[in-house]
Amino acid sequence: MFIASLYNLKGGVGKTASCVNFAYMAAKDGYKTLLWDLDPQAAASYYYNAHAAVKSSVKKIIEHSLPINEAIIHTEYSGLDIIPADLSARKLDILLESQHGTKKYFKNLLKELSSSYDFVFIDCPPGFSNVADNIFTASDAVLMPVIPTTLSVRTYEQVKNYFGDKEIDLSKLMCFFTMVDIRKNMHKDTMQHLHKDMRFFEHYIPHLSDIEKMGIRNAPLEVFAPSSYAATCYRALWGDIKEGVIE
Ligand SMILES: Nc1ncnc2c1ncn2[C@@H]1O[C@H](COP(=O)(O)OP(=O)(O)O)[C@@H](O)[C@H]1O
Ligand SMILES: [Mg+2]
Question: Which residues surround ligand 2, an ion (CB under 5 A)?
């Protein structure tokens, strides 16, 4: 079972849009796939029309009163399951603190599912926290979408430093560019600069209105716009990721 989390210190960078598309493409490739929505905003759950089967399920999972497999629901797509987020996820940091602040909590929890899934995608809330530490520890790859602006370079450095401070294996950190406007010099220059770091996948996701439409269609791109340029870009990037992590 390969665990990939979609993470960035910043919000609004394309974590959820990417998580929803990658999970769908993994399932379509025949991998048994689980998306765990850990962002209390529950946007990934919304894209998949998924509602938590049990009230306060995140809280109950952490407190051991709900086995994790009982929080899983099937999506309408074959091979793709989801643990939807609910509002109790907003207290996740405090809940984890009450579990003696361990960093291995998610890792151990997900071990229970290792024979059921090939891929787990975690849609993360932004920020540095106990939640992030737990997700980094559990993940085989931390996939970080980066909008190529000057400020994002700073965020990228902050995340790398955080990995260093917390002694998290930096080779887990794999990045890709999102919301790219290739006509902008700042985007081009920033991409060129960051590519030197060898931590970025070759293919990138441009700023495209079809991706915004996922919120109206409540579905991944492959479902409602499979021949769009946006879907083509996500397929190419998914190809890079598979090559980077499994092949
Ligand atoms: N490549 C893109 N082009 C245009 N809009 C995008 C793109 N990726 C995401 N969006 C839109 O930007 C907003 C933030 O994206 P989202 O995936 O929710 O970010 P995050 O999960 O990092 O907060 C959403 O409205 C989404 O539809
Ligand atoms: Mg999100």
Answer: 15-16, 39, 43
